[in-house]
């Protein structure tokens, strides 16, 4: 199976290096600081995602409420064959039709989920001096704190501050706030277990052995990253965007949030508002599940919108292959005559760096590895 052209990788890597060395670095926490300005009545022009003539009206017209597929995680370990077969079928339909599902009965204590969200809030409430201790500037720094997505290359900033931490196979943690390391270590371990069990079920739903993807992608040493997002109230939410339409790298992302909604996903060309129930995970499929399945399961495009009333905090746990794994379509799902490979192979670490070093836009990076 062919690999992504070395000229493309080298050119994009050079661009990434240029971006990493850009001297400009926005003030950390600038959106939170900006939102808390007592005289703020309109957003600065650099945050205006839509122009004043459209006000996103066409987009608002197509937003619909959708019935999100629900997966009962406890049934994946059911001793009753019919129950397990049913949840495998549910996973197949959710991945084929939505690329997104709600997970219930996952076994992680609600108290732990709440503590982790509280830790994220405490992190963002710190002084800029404290957050600067997590100021890794390279896109693959193990701990990185900042604003927007990649402010060094963006012409328009997003109404978002973030913390990104590599937590597996090597565990990292910001030094403060107190307790963050202990709570996040337990939370990451538990969510990683849930993700691997879901991937086993997804593997079986593709007609593969239960542990096929787990073994092929070396998920014992999987890459797991904690991404905490802060979306403060915005005086003109119709003009700003928390995160633009994009798909995630990796296999699965497990997301939880506080009681403020803002996640929307693109389903059949329409934006669907996602409402998270307490003690559940919102799970979306990533680009590398699309590559592995040779397009049978598509990564879902989603975005984060903002409001003018409440702060939204979300916590995404992204799960991908071992960073050194070259990801290609699974041989068993490829037939050169009727179902040829649709994607070039690319090492996961290279793909991750390309996505994180450039502007976020739909499936722009995935499109570059399509054959």
UniProtKB/TrEMBL annotation:
A Pfam short name: DIOX_N
PROSITE patterns assigned: FE2OG_OXY
Record's keyword terms, sorted: Iron, Metal-binding, Oxidoreductase
Gene Ontology molecular function: metal ion binding; oxidoreductase activity
Occurrences of domain Fe2OG dioxygenase (ranges): 218-321
N-terminal signal peptide: none
Highest taxon, organism lineage: Eukaryota
Annotated family: Belongs to the iron/ascorbate-dependent oxidoreductase family.
The protein's name in its UniProt record: Fe2OG dioxygenase domain-containing protein
Organism: Aquilegia coerulea
């Amino acid at each position: 199976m062919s690999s992504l052209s070395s000229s493309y990788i080298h050119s994009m890597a050079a661009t990434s290096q240029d971006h990493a060395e850009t001297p400009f670095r926005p003030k950390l926490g600038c959106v939170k600081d900006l939102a808390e300005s007592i005289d703020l009545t309109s957003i600065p022009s650099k945050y205006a995602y839509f122009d004043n003539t459209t006000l996103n009206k066409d987009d608002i017209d197509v937003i619909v409420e959708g019935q999100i597929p629900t997966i009962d995680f406890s049934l994946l370990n059911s001793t009753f064959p019919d129950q397990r077969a049913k949840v495998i079928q549910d996973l197949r339909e959710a991945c084929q039709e939505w690329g997104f599902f709600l997970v219930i009965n996952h076994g992680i204590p609600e108290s732990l989920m709440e503590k982790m969200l509280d830790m994220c809030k405490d992190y963002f409430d710190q002084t800029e001096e404290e957050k600067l201790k997590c100021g890794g500037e390279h896109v693959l720094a193990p701990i990185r704190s900042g604003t927007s997505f990649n402010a060094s290359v963006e012409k328009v900033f997003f109404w978002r501050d973030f913390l990104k931490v590599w937590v597996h196979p090597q565990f990292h943690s910001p030094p403060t706030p107190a307790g963050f390391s202990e709570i996040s270590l337990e939370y990451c371990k538990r969510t990683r277990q849930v993700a691997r069990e879901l991937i086993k079920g997804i593997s079986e739903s593709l007609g593969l052995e239960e542990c096929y993807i787990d073994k092929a992608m070396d998920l014992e040493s999987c890459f797991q990253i904690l991404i905490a997002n802060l979306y403060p109230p915005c005086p003109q939410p119709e003009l700003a965007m928390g995160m633009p339409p994009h798909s995630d790298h990796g296999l699965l992302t497990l997301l939880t949030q506080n009681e403020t909604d803002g996640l929307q996903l693109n389903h059949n060309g329409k934006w669907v508002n996602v409402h998270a129930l307490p003690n559940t995970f919102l799970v979306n499929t990533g680009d590398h599940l699309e590559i592995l399945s040779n397009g049978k399961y598509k990564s879902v495009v989603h975005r984060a919108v903002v409001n003018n009333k409440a702060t939204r905090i979300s916590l995404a746990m992204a799960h991908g292959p071992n960073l050194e794994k070259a990801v290609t379509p699974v041989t068993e799902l490829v037939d050169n005559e009727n179902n040829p490979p649709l994607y070039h192979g690319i090492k996961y670490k290279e793909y991750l760096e390309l996505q994180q070093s450039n502007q976020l836009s739909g499936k722009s990076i995935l499109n570059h590895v399509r054959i």
